[in-house]
């Protein structure tokens, strides 16, 4: 039994010696290589005797958006990585997603379809009195109020209902003059022509004064009192009268409003003005009656703009037969600006709006998606109109596209799609020595050997530290084997460091 064990140990020793020699040779080759892309191209050509692939361009090794038509090095001395024909990104941005990745992300799709959409212009406003239905009761002569028949503001009144009675010396005088002129026998054969003409002028003057005062000429006995009636059915908004009060010509004793129809004055934002037109229908909802909506019609678009709020008032008219709408109420208005026309639409969640352009993720095939620029029209409650970029029946992503909701992370999200297996940061191992350590910024400068997995030559570069404990006990110049993570955007962080001798001992 001892002899086979000795032979086995001898074989292991020979294997270790050959591995060390191979490692030293490959290290020397990596250090003396000037252009890794050229060596990589030669290796590709020699692999299997196949025809070498054409190099399209060289990309930045740190992932920066920089390419070169010729081999070159970056500011850190790292070679640009060749991109071969067939390996370049899709020129249209299409990406491939594995079925497992689709299930993990919860990707959902929907069809672009033609429909009548809800694209109402929403505004806030307040209920106002219909200005055309306001009536002022204002006598045109001087007098005194002797009796009030309606005594309080807010009282309902009907057309023709007595409001108040007045006494006016001017009114009595005009009526008596008309009565005297009538009593003269102007049609008698022996009547004096001059008296007949004077009586006619007196009667005409009395009739004109009564007509100007809007008082009917008495048909019989002169009355010293006159009663004013309501000119409309409605409510008393203002009452300035008390019994015994003297009034002057033009004094508004009562203000009455007909509230069977009311106005809603809503403020529409400047950006929505082109979408609203006179004659369009609208829905009005009130805080007082949240479960009810009222039909209204847009009747006027005011010609002014409020510079402070950037809004323009619009006027809507609606019926108030039940008296539920009271002036001053706060109202929400939805103006149906889209009408009933059919439009090509996609769900609202499908649109990625960067501020400068709008994009949807179009389904190109099984697991293949393409960012498709579109031109957007009206925006509804649940859908948006597509003017250009899609056709009826096109399939788009409506869920999981929140990962790419801004132009700044669009490329990063698409790269996540194209690399479904890279759910964690990639780890790499390297051999080198510590050049310097800066614990204040958790960084370390390493003299490392070539790293074939990243096509990096031997060089000195700065790494981040996952923690200060990683580099604890390691001295400058001491050979080490370290593991680091590629966290993206050119960030490389060392997560583990061990002495090169200890690592070799573990190998034995």
TrEMBL record:
InterPro entries documented for this protein: Beta-barrel_RND_2, BSH_CusB, CusF_Ec, CusF_sf, CzcB_C, MFP_Cation_Efflux, RND_pump_MFP
Record's GO cellular component terms: membrane; outer membrane-bounded periplasmic space
Keywords attached to this entry: Ion transport, Plasmid, Signal, Transport
Short name of any one Pfam family annotated for the protein: Beta-barrel_RND_2
Signal peptide stretch: 1-29
Keyword Thylakoid attached: no
CzcB-like C-terminal circularly permuted SH3-like domain sequence ranges: 344-404
Residues of the CusB-like beta-barrel domain: 261-338
Gene3D superfamilies (UniProt xref): 2.40.30.170, 2.40.420.20, 2.40.50.100, Copper binding periplasmic protein CusF
GO BP terms, alphabetized: copper ion export; plasma membrane copper ion transport
Gene Ontology terms for molecular function: transition metal ion binding; transmembrane transporter activity
Residues in CusB-like barrel-sandwich hybrid domain copies: 137-257
Domain of life: Bacteria
Family: Belongs to the membrane fusion protein (MFP) (TC 8.A.1) family.
Cross-referenced PANTHER family: CATION EFFLUX SYSTEM PROTEIN CUSB
Name of protein: Efflux RND transporter periplasmic adaptor subunit
Organism of origin: Denitromonas iodatirespirans
């Amino acid at each position: 039994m001892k002899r086979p064990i000795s032979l086995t140990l001898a074989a292991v020793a020979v294997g270790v010696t050959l591995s060390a020699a191979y490692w030293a040779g490959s290290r020397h080759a990596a250090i003396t290589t000037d252009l890794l892309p050229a060596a990589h191209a030669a290796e590709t050509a020699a692999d299997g005797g196949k025809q070498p692939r054409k190099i399209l361009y060289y990309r930045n090794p740190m992932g920066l958006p920089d390419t070169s038509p010729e081999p070159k090095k970056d500011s850190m001395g790292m070679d640009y990585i060749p991109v071969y024909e067939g390996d370049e990104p899709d020129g249209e941005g299409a990406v491939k997603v594995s079925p497992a990745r689709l299930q993990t992300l919860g990707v959902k799709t929907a069809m672009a379809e033609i429909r009548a959409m809800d694209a109402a212009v929403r505004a806030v406003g307040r209920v106002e009195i219909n200005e055309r239905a306001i009536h002022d009761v204002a006598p045109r002569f001087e007098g005194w109020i002797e009796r009030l028949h309606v005594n309080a503001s807010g009282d309902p009144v009907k057309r023709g209902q007595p409001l108040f009675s007045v006494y006016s010396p001017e009114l009595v005088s005009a009526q008596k003059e008309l009565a005297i002129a009538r009593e003269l026998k102007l049609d008698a054969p022996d009547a004096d022509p001059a008296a007949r003409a004077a009586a006619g002028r007196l009667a005409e003057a009395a009739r004109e004064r009564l007509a100007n005062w809007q008082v009917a000429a008495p048909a019989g006995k002169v009355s010293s009192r006159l009663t004013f009636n309501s000119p409309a059915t409605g409510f008393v908004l203002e009452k300035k009268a008390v019994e015994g009060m003297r009034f002057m010509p033009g004094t508004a004793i009562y203000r009455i409003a007909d509230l069977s129809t009311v106005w809603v004055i809503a403020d529409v934002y400047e950006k929505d003005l082109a979408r609203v037109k006179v004659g369009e229908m609208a829905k009005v909802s009130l805080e007082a009656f949240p479960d009810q909506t009222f039909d209204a019609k847009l009747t006027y678009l005011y010609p002014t703009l409020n510079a402070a709020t950037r809004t323009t008032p619009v006027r809507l008219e609606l019926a108030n037969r039940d008296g539920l709408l009271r002036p001053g109420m706060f109202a929400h208005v939805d103006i149906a600006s889209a009408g009933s026309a059919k439009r090509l639409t996609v769900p609202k969640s499908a649109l990625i709006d960067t501020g400068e352009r709008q994009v949807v993720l179009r389904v190109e095939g099984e697991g293949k998606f393409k960012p498709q620029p579109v031109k957007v029209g009206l925006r509804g409650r649940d859908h948006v109109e597509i003017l250009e970029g899609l056709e009826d029946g096109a399939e788009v992503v409506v869920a999981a596209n929140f990962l790419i909701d801004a132009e700044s992370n669009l490329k990063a999200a698409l790269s996540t799609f194209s690399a479904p297996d890279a759910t964690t940061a990639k780890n790499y191992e390297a051999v080198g020595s510590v050049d310097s350590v800066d614990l204040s910024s958790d960084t370390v400068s390493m003299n490392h050997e070539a790293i074939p997995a990243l096509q990096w030559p031997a060089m000195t570069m700065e790494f981040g530290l996952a923690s200060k404990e990683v580099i604890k006990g390691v001295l400058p110049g001491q050979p080490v084997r370290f593991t680091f993570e590629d966290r993206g955007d050119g960030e490389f962080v060392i997560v583990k460091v061990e002495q090169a001798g200890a690592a070799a001992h573990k190998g034995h």
